[in-house]
Every structure is written in C-alpha cells, then in structure tokens.
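During the reporting period the student researcher (J.K.) took over the structure-prediction task from the postdoctoral fellow and processed the backlog of single-chain submissions. One of the processed entries is reproduced below for the supervisory committee.
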Amino acid sequence: MKKLENRFRLLLTALFFAMSAVSGIGSPAAAAPAVPASEQQRNDMTWVRYKQTFPGHFVTNGARDAKKVALTFDDAPDPRFTPQILDILKEQHVRATFFIVGYRAEDHRELVRRIHREGHEIGNHSYNHPNYAELPLEQFQNQILRTDRAIRKIAGYSPRFIRPPYGELRSRQMRWLSEHDYTVVNWDVDSVDWRNTASSDVLMNIRKTLRPGSIVLQHAGGGDGQDLSGTIAALPALIEELKEQGFDIVPLSELLGQPAARRLK
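J.K. obtained the following structure tokens:
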C-alpha cells in the first residue's frame, strides 16, 4: 500500500511539471513539490548519508535538546505573497529565513531589502529553480554563484545557507559546497503548502513531524496559478501555537549555531 501511495505522489509530481511545460507555470521558477528523503529518485545519496558524510554542511534540523524551531520560506521574493508574510512576522516579532531565487531578487530588489532590513536571514535557492541533480557541475556552480552575487549586491553579504530546489543535489555538488563554506539546509517539517493547501491542512501537516530543533518548510512565492493564501492564513495561528507550546522561533543561524554569512575566500 505504501509503495502504491509513493508511486501515486510521484505521478502527481510528474503531472504537475507536464502541465507547467504547457502552461508556462514554473518558468523560469515556481514553487513545486518538496521531495522527502524517502522519495528522492536522483540524489546519489540519501539525506541521512549526506548528513553523515558532510557533518555540519548538510542539515535537516537543529539540536533536539532545546525548544527552538526555525520557519523557512522558499521561492521569495514574490510581490503577491512575500509582503503579506513579512507583515505577519513583523506584527508577531518573529524572525525567519527566506530562501531567495536569484532572478526574482534582481526583479524585486526592494522586497529583498525589506527582508534584510526587518531582521530576517537570507539563503540561496538557485537562480531560476532547476533540479540540481540534473545539472552538470559547472551549470550548478553558476546557479549558486549568480544568485550569490545578486543577493550580495542587495543585502551586503554572501549567504551561507543553500536550499536546493526540491531538496535534490548530487554528492560532487555537495562536496563543492562544503569546500566553499556553504551549508545545505533542507527540512524535517513540510507544510506541503505549494499545493494551494488550505490553512487547516498547512497547520496539520506541520504538526505531524514538528519537534524541538525542527526546520519548517513553507513558501513565500509561487508560479502562475499557485495560491499561497493558505500559508498566509495559517501563519498567525502557527506562530501563536508555537509560542503557547514554549517554542522559541529563531532564524537558522541561531538554530544551527552558524553565521548567516559565509567566509569569502
């Protein structure tokens, strides 16, 4: 039964991209399904193996001995959704981490400046959202470095934290990142909000695997036709629930004990 369920989910993913190719959704970048470790098809290592081989440079969570949690938002900046998320975080006095798509940063520089100005951390989420596991090393490096330059021009620093689109990359890419002082940050809590998910389901999905040290995956941007109103509606309730349960909501640098900026060589 589990195998059939996994095949069905992978079929839905393939259908999403087939429709995107016809309609233009996701071009050049769009929020898309997050692939959990158990379903990775192209990675040449499992997430567990990456964590063992590249300790401190590949993470899916922080320490489990403190009630801290990090909220992360992929595919920013997007003028339809990112400002609303920023408004809520500001009102709730919460700092988060936004994973930035390079071409969107160039198109919406003021939104990136606002993210930085309001105390949130910025991570690198590729230039135009390809699957890294399908790219040769040189193209992969260009995706990282081009986005790095775009963010550095706007925010003034080179982000340490990398989130591969779909959570996928290959071991030689991971080795290059670790050698250049990057840290790949995936997640252990998936809101599954990219599916135009209702706020009640966003909350339910987060509750399923939330633990001390969790890194929560959400989105602050999407492709044509994608609707993150469920994410936005769920966010105040999520923050209130976390605080009531005694969690400190912190940016990744605090959760992981690593600076948000990398050392430039």
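The committee noted the following: The chain is about 45% helix and 10% strand.
J.K. will present the remaining backlog at the next meeting.
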